[in-house]
Design goal:
mainly alpha, 3 helices
């Protein structure tokens, strides 16, 4: 089934662009979110979206 296909060489050296971004990313937050179930993550996201709607709504009434 895989006859005729050749494997491509892939570098395992760190990508400088990714390394530059990693300095500015708080990976502890990612780890904490990954501990949550998908349902818990979704509920958390909906909660944040509701909060944003509230904040935006309060700005519109001023």
């Amino acid at each position: 089934m895989n006859e005729g296909r050749e494997l491509e060489w892939v570098s395992l050296d760190p990508d400088p662009v990714i390394e530059a971004y990693k300095r500015d990313v708080d990976r502890t937050l990612i780890r904490e979110n990954l501990k949550l179930t998908p349902d818990e993550r979704l509920r958390k996201m909906v909660s944040v979206l509701r909060f944003l709607e509230e904040v935006r709504g309060s700005k519109a009434t001023k």
